[in-house]
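Quick start: what a row looks like.
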Amino acid sequence: LASCRSIVLVGHVNPDGDSIGSLMGMKGYLHTLGKEVTAVVPNPYPEFLGFLDPQSEVLEHSIQPEQVQEKVDAADLIICMDFNSLGRIDALGGVIASSGAKKVLIDHHPQPDQLFDLIYSAYIFWDFEYDDSKKQEVFDNAKTLHIWSTAPKWSKMRPTLKPSGISIFLL
C-alpha cells in the first residue's frame, strides 16, 4: 500500500448500501494517505444511495467503460470489496482480470476466487459440533457483536463475548 499511488476500488453488480458504503469509506481513508483513488461499480446504484456518494464520484462501468478502463490501466493496486468472485461484476470482471495491477479482495462471502494476490475474508465458520448446549452462547455472542457493529461511532460500547470454547476462524 505504501508504494501504491493510484488505487481502484471495485464494488459488485447492482450495488447496495454495503457496496457503496464500503467503497466510499475506503476511498476516504485512502485519500487521507495521499492516494489517488477511484471507486467503480459494474452498473448504476439506486438513487436512494446517492447520499453515500454526494459528489457522484463512483464510476459506473456500464455507462463509462472508457473512463473505468483508463483508471484500471493506470492503477498500481485494485481492491475488490463486498464480493467473492469476478463473476459478480459482469463485464467489469474481464477488465479487472486482465489488469497487471496487484489485486486485493476484502469480503465476507465463502469460496473467494483465488486470482487475488491477497485475500482478507471475514467469512466465519464454526469449528464445533453444533448442539443445544452452545445455542444460547452463540446467539448471545452474535447479538453482542451485532449491537457493537451498529452502535454509533461515539459509543464507548465494546463487545464482551462469553467464553464458550468455540473456535472461530476468520479466513
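That is the whole record. The CA atoms of residues 8 and 71 lie 7 Å apart. The longest strand covers residues 36-41.
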